[in-house]
Amino acid sequence: MTHSSLLAATIAGLLLCGCSGHVVTAASVKADKDRKPAPDFMLKDAEGKPARLSDYRGKVVLLDFWETTCVPCKVEIPWFVELQRKLRDRGFETLGVAMDEAGWESVKPFAAKMGINYRLVIGNEQLAQSYGGVDALPTTFLIDRAGRIAAVHVGLTGKQEFESGIEELLQE
After folding, report:
1. Residues 6+ positions from 66 with CB-CB distance below 8 Å
2. pLDDT band at residue 15 under the 50/70/90 scheme
3. Burial 94-106, CB ≥16 within 10 A → b, else e
4. So what's the pLDDT on residue 59?
5. Is residue 121 classed as helix, strand or coil in its secondary structure?
6. Are 41 and 128 a contacting pair, CB within 8 Å?
7. 80 Cβ partners below 8 Å, 6+ apart?
8. Which 3 state secondary structure label does DSSP give 49?
9. Whole-prediction pTM value?
């Protein structure tokens, strides 16, 4: 969604809600009743420790499927680094799922170069399929505190759209 269409949607929402005090829902975040549970998984992180999505229950999670050779991924990662730094103390976590065939051999040096400050795991086809088939990178899921998928972003998404969705979920 472009900035102007998001602005138009926000204005339309304000006109519909009037001054009733209702929070305008960001266009990217699904209504509570439309959210489905995010599939749990267990993969090893860069230190060889098990990482489970269920470990993050009670937090808002940005689950990012990406690859080191993906140009749009390289655009989004610095935003996720900033969001992790800025919002971690408010119950937010970023979890990166690298889909590189070379695994940690390519991911560890890339992560160091990019200054990634959030947990990474190496994904696989089974995990991608459990999330409905991740056919394009980046594909990013916003997961609410109850472990449900609140938004899905396929391809390069604007920083403001991520921030708006995360902020809305943090306030729930």
Report:
1. 73, 76, 77, 96, 97, 98, 99, 137, 138
2. very low
3. bbbbbbbeeebeb
4. 98
5. strand
6. no
7. 62, 64, 94, 96, 116, 118, 162
8. coil
9. 0.83
Q: For the domain that residue 157 is a member of, what is the CATH number?
A: 3.40.30.10
DSSP 130-167: HTT---SSSEEEEE-TTSEEEEEEES---HHHHHHHHH
Overall domain count for the chain = 1
Asked whether residue 14 is domain-assigned, the answer is no
Average pLDDT estimate for 123-139: 95
| Domain range enclosing 142 | 27-171
The whole-chain average pLDDT of the chain stands at: 87
Inter-residue contact 96 to 64 (CB < 8 Å): yes
Residue with tokens 């390069």: 156
**Residues shown for the chain:** 172
Within-domain flag for 62: yes
In the numeric block, which tokens belong to residue 45? 């992180």
Range from 10-24, 29-43, 74-88, 104-118 carrying the lowest mean pLDDT:
10-24
pLDDT at 25: 37
Does 5 fall in a domain? no
Asked if residue 1 is part of any domain, the answer here is no
